[in-house]
Design brief:
518 residues, mainly alpha, 75% helix
């Protein structure tokens, strides 16, 4: 047991040490932590919540449901393992019994749940205002950690059982989606009963007494909302007892499992380690490395030369599951729905859609192609290979963001010209963002600290935006402050495309050195 605790302690200490392994990393880490602390303290000093149109109960319920579904779908749709390669080698080659390995998993759930729980709860004080004091925040963090603990423990149990009984994870996923389907049917019934008034439906759905008894999601919402309203005996204690009881049952089930999971866990730890190395060194990982490729026929027209890179990516995208292949558009639509339900202005929605789309574009497959030696052997120019490798992900980002913004423009009753303007602006900066990211990758390489890479990436994007901003100022001056919005957007798009082509040309050396990469 001492060795197990030592391993867990060293794991987290080494993560902290890596953040200070160089002077730039140390400076950026200190600045990042200081910024988090400042925002965190300032959020408790806000006099009112920006979401006064929605109750704290509805906010908590929506966040818990969304993140819970996201985590479960992520775990049940991927083969990324449950141990890193270093941990697996240490545990499986050392003098440890199976139950000691399982104990390591059980103990590691607590710090992981607390860390993820903190990031889940980080913005709650801003959203709820004075309804959430610091003391209640700490209790809420514990409740959310219990919620996350159930997710982790249940996934570990499903993963281990699936190691011997192949197909168990698939059955668990079907049960999970059937459960969500039942919740969706109940929501549709409430929506129909309220004459399709979305805001009223959401409020009545999440705040109804029956939802409190919905396993896991309802219990968590019930605990937090009861804490905020002071219903300790009739709400907080029963719901927390339910969460604690399920955590205890899952711990007992996992500790007493009889399945031999060593071989599968060790095999999957290699894939997990590669993903973690990518994230650690460059702040991103290939999205296909997280997702299963299904064995199903896909119709793709194969191209020759540099176009083969494009064809390969399209083939792999076609073999992804429905959730994996459409996760971008689903997330963008969630932002639109979130803005509508909670009464945010359109500017907030477009900012969230843009941020979500561009963030996910950093995990596209072109990151992986830049590291593969076979691209060096394709008899085409480096510039052409770079364009073809980026094209599938860029098109996907533009389509998903464009659809979400079009739906948002209709929902917010914007004029057609204004809607087209926002979509064109999004397209122009989506293109610029991706090629600025490639240029960062070309200059820094793939072995730099992730925090440093992220900061420099943001700097390059800001610098790359300057020409378009200058053009906007010139147009505003020439038109006496009343420019045509469509013409302005088209001008911005043209400027950003030209800047992107220049960045792509300057970045073509990525493929000229690919035979030296891992």
């Amino acid at each position: 047991m001492q060795a197990i605790m030592y391993l867990i302690k060293k794991t987290y200490l080494n993560k902290i040490k890596r953040s200070f392994k160089s002077i730039p990393s140390a400076i950026l880490t200190v600045l990042g932590v200081a910024g988090f602390i400042f925002i965190f303290i300032a959020s408790f000093r806000m006099k009112k919540s920006p979401l006064e149109s929605a109750s704290s109960e509805t906010i908590v319920a929506a966040i818990v449901l969304f993140l819970g579904v996201l985590l479960y779908n992520s775990f049940l749709s991927r083969d990324t393992g449950i141990l890193t390669m270093a941990d697996a080698n240490f545990l499986f080659t050392g003098p440890f019994e199976k139950r000691q390995v399982l104990m390591y998993l059980l103990i590691s759930v607590a710090p992981a749940s607390l860390m993820i729980g903190f990031f889940m709860c980080f913005y709650l004080p801003m959203l709820m205002g004075p309804a959430l004091s610091f003391g209640k925040y700490l209790i809420t963090l514990v409740v959310i950690s219990l919620f996350l603990g159930i997710i982790f423990l249940s996934y570990y149990y499903i993963y281990i059982i699936d190691a011997e009984n192949t197909g168990f994870k698939k059955k668990a996923k079907k049960i999970f989606w059937a459960f969500l389907g039942a919740l969706a049917v109940a929501f549709a019934a409430v929506l129909l009963n309220n004459d399709f008034e979305l805001k009223i439906t959401v409020k009545r759905y999440f705040e109804s007494s029956w939802y409190n008894w919905v396993p896991l999601f309802g219990w968590t919402k019930w605990a937090v909302s009861s804490l905020l309203t002071g219903k300790i005996l009739t709400g907080f204690i029963p719901s927390v007892c339910l969460l604690l009881a399920v955590n205890a049952v899952l711990c007992i089930m996992l500790y007493n499992v009889k399945v031999d999971f060593y071989e599968k866990t060790l095999e999957d730890s290699v894939s997990l380690q590669k993903i973690m190395d990518d994230i650690k060194t460059s702040g991103k990982a290939d999205s296909h490395a997280f997702s299963k490729l299904k064995n199903k026929p896909v119709s793709v027209k194969f191209k020759t030369g540099a176009g083969a890179i494009y064809s390969k990516q399209m083939l792999e995208s076609g073999k992804l599951g429905i959730m994996s292949s459409n996760r971008e558009i689903l997330l963008q639509l969630f932002y639109v729905a979130f803005g509508l339900i909670f009464g945010f202005k359109f500017n907030f929605v477009i900012a969230m859609v843009g941020f979500g789309a561009l963030s996910m574009s950093l995990n596209d497959s072109w990151h992986r192609d830049f590291k593969k030696p076979y691209v060096f052997l394709i008899p085409e120019s480096s510039f052409k290979k770079l364009i073809y490798s980026v094209l599938p992900g860029l098109i996907k980002t533009m389509i998903s963001g464009g659809i979400a913004l079009a739906i948002a423009a209709v929902a917010y009753k914007l004029s057609p010209a204004a809607g087209i303007n926002y979509i064109l602006v999004f397209f122009s900066f989506a293109i610029l963002f991706v090629f600025a990211e490639i240029f960062t990758y070309r200059l820094i390489g793939s072995n730099s600290n992730a925090v440093v890479v992220t900061m420099l990436r943001m700097l390059f994007v800001i610098v790359a935006c300057i020409p378009a901003i200058v053009i906007l100022v010139v147009i505003a001056i020439i038109s006496n402050g009343m420019p045509n919005i469509i013409e302005t957007s088209l001008c911005m798009l043209a400027v950003n495309v030209l800047i992107s082509i220049l960045l792509a040309y300057l970045s073509k050396g990525i493929f000229e050195q690919s035979e030296l990469m891992d």
